[in-house]
Design a protein that fits this description.
homotetramer, alpha/beta, 6-stranded parallel beta sheet, 4-stranded antiparallel beta sheet, disordered C terminus
């Protein structure tokens, strides 16, 4: 059975609730960075704004908790509060059913309704939930997205702490299943530590032996890259022979390394300003059709915040954006769910097993699509 | 590289600490079920008792927190407190270094010393620990044990809540990697529910759809087996076509289903008396050379309690007993570690992934050793 | 504001759906212990059976996953499958809306509907949920129940591993807030270990120092009680001066210690047969108006299974039964929720803090109601 | 018993291992931001550098994973790699026992050795560990530190999600137990949301009711502060009447709000550049004598990285720095332990209960030291 995207159900604006609806009101920004009172905040759902009577316009790019600005050319832009300029016209109105000229379309795709919620038995995802179908659906989805979509991975450092997971993720990159990567300093540091010393935080990533003075290894890895100037140059100089960062750079896969207060170093590529990092992450997620977040609460929530549940394709078709989170703890999953990132699917497991299993499953189904050139 | 068991390091009883050691003292039981004051309690380690000056005898079968009884024939038996009879002679003495004629040999196998404990970095097993080597070692071990050992699996119901994990565990049984199974009522109930209705607690084990009135399925499964009289008979009647219980029975693999206060039903095979269940579990674990506990804190701790860290083979060689626990939570792992089950290795992941990965890994290495006869 | 129980909303049997409903059908048991096909399984909700046209009778005592038997005297009894006798007449029919003469009343009490479920934000209980109101409501509830209800505590051993929590729970017993206790062997063993040696599993319950040979302490505690014959006698002999078990016995609070395969010993009071233990637990929970389960997944689920969401008082008024679970993990809470124990409220915290806080809160509000007589 | 700090055990430099030790070597920085090869990285322990034969100098301020620079005036400065300037002289040598002229003093305070590690039973901290003594010791410690030390709290947003915890933390500030606070944007946002709307992420912080359009509340709170210009001004204008931020500002307690990629807004006070935020956090932690981290893995690890295990007082006495972490999960605790932050003590519980209990315990012992002036 060929993979097919769920159909988009456009709203029926001929329904009575919409006939009397006003056009949306825009208020002007009095001080840069501050939204006018009564501003409308965007959600993850497709949202329609009645610009003229009967003309309901869909936001082309959205994300949670932003505001909608009427551009000079008549278009609608979605932007963060902090980027508002004095005089910008911001859509106002908080009722989501059309009464303010704004309609938030929560039932855009059929898969959003989960029949299981009606029964008290087993309505919650836990570690005991069956995940077989999720793997199979993911294989089909990634097979489709590899050619037709834009797959963004959000990756915590645990993926490179384990030899097999690190190798498998590198293979996913080589095989074209990774179109962008969002991570922090630690992922890159420990990936390079593994390339140079075969350790992560001083522990061998296969044998688990703690090597002598191993706690120097990540500092030496950082120092080496800082000396050379960049990861790219280190690869060019031939000192990094494997790993995630090398695969990304070889395949020209864009990535963002966002700084955090936990960082040692950091590596030269790391973005120190978190709001600039958000912007750069947003540059990549605006294209995302599928996002997979692996064992990183910080980056997963950050990405969930900037990810809409839909994407408008070049041919103007509306398709869903898939968001998978893989984590060991129900708390992390619930926390994401509690932020309203409803379209997320969750797999509760160790990301090491997840990455290895997914790489193997894709290879079995689709073969190696990328011939390793080296 | 062929798999090799770690060598046993016998104690050197010519060392000074042993030369002046007394012979062990036995006190007689005054009341059945009650040990004499000062009784010696056994550990998971090999323990030696000086029976006559210079004759240090190793307990042939041991387990944690039992007492040692001098049998009429001069042998030493390890037994639970509750099974003591009036007049039994019980070994007394609590010093473990020989001063009471008892030596607890904590350094019997080289692998027990973990060098990683000396360094502060990454000394604890967490979900971020690398587990690649554990899988590879486990494949080697299971390949060896399939032919030379006795592999006991301790299995929580999560294994049969997922289609792929249930199938994979069935394949492990068929391929000869399961020599005994310890579980509770729930494992068998939901395995049979899956065989009859393709659900677990009313949820399809592949599609996750909640079927109508699905909460009746496990009750109907129990009722069906109670009507027929046993799982064996249900298989004979041809109504169970797949799953773990069918594989066990077909392959004549012994199992114990221990009752618990959570049980519905129960199935006819379930043992209501927990101490009788302990005895039956002990009948199987006394042969164990490798034990793997999957997502069950109750049964894993119970088994850990009755499992020594060594086994004496028929040719009197002493070999280690391997104990793996697979669980999602550091708490479960730490709780086991805190009970002194030191020989345990832990993998922190979802057992669904673990079982599927192990089955696939074994098949890849060793092929299918068992030709499905049907 | 005086505490008031939520009102019971009786079903309106004059509604059309009920007018054409048939009377319930009873089928006879062919083999003891096996329900007839199509049996009706009870839920936690109030259930009505149409005995004669227009006569809808409410089950007086119910619990999850049992069957309904028509007694010789015309009454309806709820019983476990395994207790069915040949010839018993069992209610059949699985539709819950009256079409089979059976009505399951899921909206009996107003508090069952949670408005928060309608919004995507923060609909799940997590460790970050605010629990202040739960404490305050619990104080009011326990103040009421101390005089008017029957409070059953289900207690894991963690409560006696900590000095302050053990003392606080003892005070709750002394002050009349504990009307029954359900636990396992471990709770009693470590409570007595604490009384005799001030340790739990060899670790001092206040200073946390590991005492020399402390792993003998729980075995010595068990042996001491087995020598004397019972906990009661040990108290009579004056060797136990504090703790939970002493408080229970002094105050004549009934308790059940259910056996499990993890047990050492066990203590003489422990019930080895788990189904007998279920029956004894059921003898106590049938009176329960509030149940509080502390850090015990096994006993909490077992109790949840046997606990209805309502109780019929002597004056025939129907009141809700409150079920609190206190645990550290979202998994445990979700697992309970997934079993359909919908009426449960959850507090995610360490039970040590919970018990100490509740004891202090009750004392502050209501003072010490019980004068310690010694 | 009056509280007393553990004594510092200075190293005995007359021991043979030190007599032949060389003086420490300094290498010069060739490129700003890059340490010379063989650099010495600092640890959390007191470290001594042999400057001249027989002159072992203790680092006055240290932290993990930094380098030691010889200042023009002959002093030793500890600094981050990224702050190195060309020509800086950096201490080199990795052996920690004196052989490179560097001695890392891991046994500076008696309390560092934990005897419990020698026994297999209960050596790990879990949720079932007794924490009574930790509370009592903490009361004594905080009573002492309030007058004599510098108490830094590192606080996740969960503390302000709950009414009682938020009030209690405010009282701790008022009573002088908080000398600095490290947090992120979310803590301040939701604290102000609670002040303005009595909600956190739209849910009332006491009743837990989800208010209509409540997901706007945190955005409106941010917008309000951005409009006014700062939290300080909002307090001056009289629109914030309670909460943590108001207490801090009223009491002139310094704080750092470090930005992260998860942030909405942010508030004007938030530092966007994470390395500048590290510097500002370091400005506060350099004075710290006790640090308490509540339910925040990100900030707790960041603070642990910059916190030494000792502090040199004005009178040159060396005292320990205490580091408590309070969290619900063993994973978080183990992760901190795995980073070598050995001096940390952990309490596994919900921070809501922890904060309420600590505030109550301190008030009971020491009374209210601060008279609320309003």
């Amino acid at each position: 059975m060929a993979f097919a995207l769920p159909q988009y159900n456009p709203p029926d604006f001929s329904r009575p609730q919409f006939l009397d609806a006003p056009t949306v009101v825009f208020e002007s920004v009095k001080e840069s960075g501050v939204a006018p009172e009564g501003f409308h905040a965007t959600s993850v759902y497709p949202e329609y704004f009645q610009m003229r009577k009967g003309e309901w316009r869909l936001l082309r790019e959205s994300r949670m908790d932003c505001v909608v600005v009427l551009k000079k050319n008549g278009g609608l832009a979605v932007t963060e509060f902090r980027r508002l300029k004095e005089g910008d016209l911001v859509a106002c109105g908080r009722r989501e059913n059309g009464e303010d000229g704004i309609f938030v379309h929560t039932e855009a795709f059929d898969f959003f309704e989960s029949s299981s919620e009606k029964f008290p038995f087993r309505s919650r995802i836990t570690r005991e939930t069956s995940f077989s179908i999720d793997y199979d659906e993911l294989y089909e989805l990634l097979g489709f997205e590899q050619r037709n979509g834009f797959i963004v991975w959000v990756v915590g450092p645990a993926v490179v702490f384990d030899r097999d997971a690190r190798d498998a993720f590198g293979a996913l990159v080589e095989d074209g299943y990774v179109h962008a990567l969002l991570a922090g300093n630690a992922l890159a540091v420990h990936d390079i530590e593994a390339a140079l010393f075969a350790t992560a935080l001083g522990q061998e990533i296969y044998s688990k032996r703690t090597v002598e003075l191993g706690h120097y290894n990540h500092l030496d890895a950082i120092t080496k890259i800082r000396t050379i100037g960049s990861i790219q140059k280190a690869i060019d100089e031939g000192i990094i022979h494997d790993g995630v960062m090398r695969a990304l750079i070889r395949k020209k896969v864009p990535y963002v390394l966002a700084g955090s207060i936990r960082d040692d170093g950091p590596l030269p590529e790391v973005i120190a300003d978190v709001y600039e990092a958000q912007d750069r992450m947003r540059d990549l997620t605006r294209n995302a059709t599928t996002v997979i977040a692996l064992a990183t609460q910080l980056h997963a929530i950050a990405t969930g915040n900037m990810l809409p549940s839909y994407k408008i394709e070049k041919d103007n078709r509306v398709r869903p954006v898939f968001f998978y989170t893989v984590d060991m703890s129900e708390f992390a999953i619930n926390k994401l769910a509690n932020r309203g990132s409803l379209s997320a699917r969750s797999v509760l497991t160790n990301v090491q097993d997840f990455v290895v299993t997914v790489e193997r499953g894709l290879r079995k189904r689709f073969g190696k699509s990328f011939v390793n050139p080296t």
